[in-house]
Every structure is written in structure tokens, then in C-alpha cells.
Amino acid sequence: MSTTSHGAVAGETTRRRTFAVISHPDAGKSTLTEALALHAEVIDEAGAVHGKAGRRGVTSDWMEMERKRGISITSAVLKFAYRDSVINLLDTPGHGDFSEDTYRVLAAVDAAVMLLDAAKGLEPQTLKLFDVCRSRRIPVLTFVNKWDRPGREALELLDEVEQTIGLRPMPVTWPVGVAGELRGLIECSTGEFTRFHRTAGGATRAEAEIVPAERAAAEEAPHWVNAQDELALLDEIGAKYDETALLAGTATPVLFGAALPNVGVARLLDALVELAPAPAERVDVDGLPRAVDAPFSGLVFKVQAGMDPSHRDRMAFVRVCSGRFERGMVLTHAGSGKPFATKYAQSVFGQQRSTIEEAFPGDIVGLVNAGALRPGDTLYAGDPVEYPPIPSFAPEHFAVVRSADAGKHKQFRRGIDQLDSEGVIQVLRSDLRGDQAPVLAAVGPLQFEVATHRLESEFRAPVTLEPLGYSVTRRTDAAGAEVLDRQSEVEVLTRRADGALLAVFANKWRLETIRRRYPEILLEALLAGSADAAD
Ligand code: G4P
């Protein structure tokens, strides 16, 4: 049993900042992650976090397929100390086809950094991810990146954020010099000016120099005058920082910078420490809050196999929600009531793992050999608690999967079970099709590639896929299924993970026709992975 006092847990919790970066591919998420870690002095050189082409060291892109395709599917956790705080940065998959995975990661954070490319502003994937943040009431800080390159005007970008997603921008820093001619950043609350000098290569920190306002006005005119005009305008329209609005999800602090030359990155870390919320009590399935200093509880938000090719094991990523985690604790799995031993608790940094002895709310613990755990599960010690499940997305792509080798049925079944419990892809079944031919259902087609690749490489179970012509999913019930089973261009399938009955339709029009003809049957929308899946 823990000997740590409630006060110690509360103190450790207050120091934690757990967040993820949401962005459109290429906005600079990997670059920013590296730059953040560089400032925190966890690593001494940019390039050590993500193994993108040409970069060195620890990689979170550990799957062969990811490397080939240059996409990041699997998530790494980066934990580092900054000032007095402990920062947990959770990586999210870069590709929209893995939105469901991203959604799960966002279930484990207390804040998000929305990263925008100064030349592009809000892009489709950012919008989708922002919607997830909004639905989960995650406070969002905005970082406008690549200010060292030509881009759009600062005021125009703020306007876009306000008009498109309804978040009132609250600038924390303001650029002096248009995008592509960055001179430095003004701290909006104090008026202090920091000038940046680029260093060669870009992989080291840009040098920063604090310049008094009078000198800046003389040396940086006309950029300075422009910036002051813009700030005056912002003052007039009331863009002042308001913590309540940030926490309520109606406003976003905005910072400008450039991750590649490391401009404004330390300021972003400061903003995270100063503005982003520490872990707070989490509400359970019954709507009751569990205080952060209550006995241990944690939420499994990700299950990952094959992370380490030399150990074919399976790791569950658990976000600590309350209490102190101590390696060796025996926890209870809320779903089954079974005990769960935590002897093999690890922290994961890219591909490196190390044993973790203790953790506090906001931290991420990796539990090895977590065969019984699936995303959304709760583990606890002491008073029982169960957190709400993480909702699944509405699949939009469907294919029947069959073993291509009659002698490999056992491997095939094991592989399908594994992918299902990790939540790599949704597995649906029907009596009609039988267990030899389950239906794989995906939010995006790349999920099929991951699934078949893993079945073949990890389970030695080559498969064939037969695409099905469905694209719209609704939840139904037994009464609905009875009616739908008699219709064409619709099929009712059972999701293996939770037994949900899913009605899949050829298209929206087919759904509408049936809905009009049988208004009494249940056809409930699921979380949409893309804009066209919504009603
Ligand atoms: P992602 O993870 O969001 O997909 O983006 P990533 O960090 O890989 O950045 C995408 C491209 O944008 C990279 O260039 C990266 O160097 C560049 N970039 C990121 N931040 C900045 C910035 O602040 N300023 C400038 N000028 N460029 C930035 P690339 O040539 O496509 O890739 P790479 O070969 O450098 O990896």
C-alpha cells in the first residue's frame, strides 16, 4: 500500500501537464516535439525523438510499414521536466485514417496544442481533431508555426480561428515582422520584446535577446509600428487573456513562432506550465468525480503489440487519473473484477523503455503483457471506480477478411482477436457470414493496410480482403435488426468488442429511404471520423 500522503499526491498532480499536439500532417508536429524536448534538455540534439528520414535516434515509428509509408501510427509518450513541472507529451498519429486512435489519446490528456502552419491556417485534419477536443472539453492552446517562412497575416489567421471554429483568440505573444520576416516576439501582457537571431543549420536554438521597447522601435521600424498597431487593434476588440474562457473551451491563447529554428518554443512550454490545467478529478460512468488524491485509478487509452521486435509482447498505456501508482501494486480491472499485477510497469520514450517505479495523475504508465486490457478499460486500487468507455467511431470502409491459407486458421483467428482487442480496426461478425469470414470495419482505408500487414508479418496469417460496398454506419437494436435484415443494400453486423448492433448502408440515400419508410426503428449516429459521415 502506498505510504504517500494525500498532500504529496496533490502536490505532484499540480506539477503535471499532460497534453497532445493536434495538427494537419506537415504543419510541423515532429519538429515541434523535438524542439520542445530540446528546450527541456531531455535530449541534447534535435532529431532524437521521431525517426523521420535523415533524423537520428529514438523512433516512435517502429513499425516497418510506418517507416515505409512515412506515417506515424503508433504513439510515443515523451515525459520531461521543465521548470518545476513534469510534462507528458503524448504523440498522436499523423494520418486522418487513424482518427480513432487519436481520439483515444485525446481521452488521456488535459490540454492540446493546436499547431497551425502560418501559410495554411486551419486545415481539414486540424478541424477534425479540434472537434474532438471540443467534444471532450479539452482546453486548446494555439501555436502558429513556420513564421520564419512567408505566410498569411497574423490578424487574418486569428480571424480564421474565430470564424471557423468559434474559439476567441487571446494572443500571448505577437510577431514583429510578417511571416517570412520574423524579427522577434512581443509578450502581449508586458510589452517586452524578444529578438531572435537565427543560427546555422536550424537544429540548434535560435539566439534570443531581450530588447527594450525604445531600442526596438528604433531598430525594428516599420515592423515595430505595424505590430504595435495590430496590438492596439487587438486591445480594442478585447482579446485579453481570460482563464475561465480557456478552461470553458471558448477561447484559445495564441503563440507565434517557428519550431525549426526554435523560435517561441520555450515560450510555448512556459505557456503550458502557466496556462494549461493540471490533471483534475475525472468523472466516472455514474457521473461521480474521483478526486486526484483518491486511491489509484487509471484509464487504458491504447494497447499496442509488437513495439519491440525482440519481445513479442503487448503493452497497455494507462493514464493515471487518481492516486499514486507504485510498481508491483495489484490493481483491479473494473470490467472483469479480476486482479491485475503491475510488476512490469514501464515508461516509454520512443522505442526505449525503462522500468517505472511510481507515477502520479497525468503520467502515463506502460503495462507489459497486458493481454486482458483494451482501450477504454479502467484499473483501480481501493474504492472501485469505472470511467466511461472511449466511444468508437463510425466506420466508413468495410471488407470481409478470410484466411488465404487453409492451414493457418488458428493463426488467423488469433491475429483477428489481437487486432480487435487492440482496437487497430473494428471487427464485426454476422451469423450469416460465420466466424471464418469476419468483416473488418475502418474509419480510413490505411487501417486495412496495417491490419493485413500485421496479420501476415506478426501472425504468419496471409489474408484476402473482399471490399464491401457500404459506407454509412448507424447503431440499431434487435427490433431494428429484424426490419433491416429484410432490406437490400443494408446489413446488420455485431461489433465483437462490445456487442453493439451496427447497421451498415450502401450510402446516405439508402439510409434516408429506409429511415423514411420505417421511422420507428433505431438508427443512431456514431462519432463521425470524417465530415461526410455525419448526418
Ligand atoms: P509533421 O510531423 O506535422 O508532419 O511535420 P514535420 O515536423 O515533419 O514538418 C514538416 C516540414 O515542415 C518539414 O520539412 C519541417 O522541417 C518543416 N518545418 C517544421 N517546422 C518548421 C518551421 O518552423 N519553419 C520552417 N521553415 N519549416 C518547418 P520537410 O522538408 O518536409 O521534411 P524534413 O525532410 O525536414 O523532415
What does this molecule look like?
With 535 residues, the protein is an alpha+beta fold. The chain folds into three domains: 16-275, P-loop containing nucleotide triphosphate hydrolases (Rossmann fold, 3-Layer(aba) Sandwich), CATH 3.40.50; 282-380, 3-Layer(aba) Sandwich (Rossmann fold); 397-533, Alpha-Beta Plaits (2-Layer Sandwich). 26% of the residues lie in helices and 29% in strands. It has 14 helices and 33 strands. It has an eight-stranded antiparallel beta sheet with strand order 18-17-23-14-15-22-19-20. An eight-stranded antiparallel beta sheet has the order 28-25-27-26-30-31-29-32. A hairpin with an 8-residue loop joins strand 14 (297-305) and strand 15. The radius of gyration is 24 Å and the shape is globular. Bound molecules: guanosine-5',3'-tetraphosphate. The site of guanosine-5',3'-tetraphosphate (G4P) has 18 residues, from helix 2.
List keywords for this structure.
alpha+beta, 3 domains, Rossmann fold, 14 helices, binds guanosine-5',3'-tetraphosphate, disordered C terminus, eight-stranded antiparallel sheet, globular
